[in-house]
Design goal:
By secondary structure, this protein is mainly beta. It has a domain of 91 residues. The strands form six sheets. It has an eight-stranded parallel sheet with strand order 12-14-16-18-21-24-26-27, with no helix packed on it. Strand 2 and strand 3 form a beta hairpin. The longest helix is centred in the C-terminal third of the chain and has 4 residues. It is elongated. The protein starts with 6 loop residues before the first strand and ends in a 6-residue tail after the last strand. The model has no long low-confidence stretch (mean pLDDT 91).
Length: 358
């Protein structure tokens, strides 16, 4: 039905009222809007076969009023024309898959959001189907300042996203930002954990949280003060542009392939942090690391204090590197801790009085 006030369709879902209407803009264009008012949870979308018509691919803007507290999983997925979403302050968490596959979504206010999706999903197969914003390829900027939890595949293949600044960020699901090819900066302020994939544990655990983020240059991870925090395997694998990583001193381990195939990495390693075989360098397959044949691959490693704990050998930790491709720096004040190490030809070792500012 279409009436003179611009209303296309309307109705009620439990305690939530909805209306689809056309809004005239000052530039002469018309915007198709879906607006919700009321209280409680949006439990189903109203555009499927309303009066025999499916409005999903016509909605350009979603407005959700104050008093509405939640949106059920996958409600607004596959919204082909959706550009703008306005959330109320009464919604503080977003469920899995809510806006996935909405390729034209540009603007959504997330300033009050503390959790985006669930970290409980640990299966690698079809993880993108669960991501709250997976494949939202026009989403370039989001406010993550209050977000504590980023669920599995939450921003999977959000290829326009440029920054993930999370001063309150704590927990991250698998593939959380996988394939965000424009992402340049990551800041995590209260880090606790990366979720492991279902088929992995201990040193073989995999996260893929920032896997193949090929424009990523800077990562800063500050811990929450809790013990037993680790950079899980494959977390930053194939981040070819990553050149600056600063980790807080409470990071206790860096697992296999965590930083594999990072071309010009510069990283500060906390004292006592355990480094597992194949953490850096070529791709570790469980037995050995693939060779780094590109001479432009050079990793610069700053070892804090008395140095890390090595699970196998320095040679194994930096597997696949060739002569001179790993530059090691440690402080003269701790020189005695490094005097017995047999550095082979892949390492260029320097004792210095002070490190450059990270």
């Amino acid at each position: 039905m279409t009436v003179s006030d611009g209303t296309v369709a309307s109705g009620t879902i439990n305690n939530v009222s909805w209306e689809i209407y056309d809004r005239d803009e000052s530039n002469g264009n018309t915007t198709r809007v879906l607006e919700f008012t009321g209280s409680g949870q949006i439990t189903s979308n109203p555009w499927t076969d309303v009066d025999g018509t499916n409005y999903r691919d016509t909605i350009q803007e979603i407005l959700i009023g104050e008093g509405i507290t939640a949106i059920s999983d996958y409600i607004f997925k596959d919204s082909a024309e959706l550009v703008t979403v306005q959330l109320p302050s009464t919604i503080t968490t977003l469920a899995d898959g809510v806006f996935r596959n909405s390729p034209n979504l540009i603007t959504i206010n997330l300033g009050n959001i503390t959790a985006i999706g669930s970290t409980s999903t640990n299966r690698k197969d079809n993880v993108e189907a669960h991501g709250t914003f997976s494949n939202c390829t026009s989403l370039a900027s989001v406010d993550l300042s209050n977000v504590k939890t980023v669920g599995a595949g939450a921003f999977y293949q959000c290829t326009a996203l440029t920054q993930a600044i999370m001063p309150n960020g704590e927990n991250f699901g698998i593939y959380a930002f996988k394939g965000c090819s424009s992402l340049t900066t990551v800041e995590i302020g209260k880090f606790k954990s990366f979720t492991r994939t279902q088929d992995s544990s201990d040193q073989y655990a995999c996260s893929y949280a920032f896997y193949i983020c090929q424009a990523l240059t800077t990562v800063t991870i500050t811990g929450s003060g809790n013990a037993n925090k680790a950079i899980i395997g494959n977390t930053f694998m194939y981040c070819n542009s990553l050149n600056k990583v600063v980790l807080s001193d409470d990071i206790h381990a860096i697992y296999n392939n965590a930083f594999s195939k990072c071309k010009n990495l510069s990283i500060y390693i906390p004292e006592g942090c355990e480094l597992y075989q194949g953490a850096f360098g070529g791709v570790w397959n469980g037995t050995s690391s693939s060779a780094i044949t590109d001479s432009e691959y050079v990793n610069t490693i700053y070892l804090k204090g008395t140095g890390p704990t090595i699970s196998s050998s320095y040679d194994g930790v930096f597997g696949g590197f060739q002569d001179g491709q790993v530059k090691i720096y440690y402080l003269n004040a701790y020189a005695s801790s490094y005097s017995g190490i047999n550095w082979n030809s892949k390492f260029e070792v320097h004792a210095v009085d002070a490190f450059p500012e990270p």
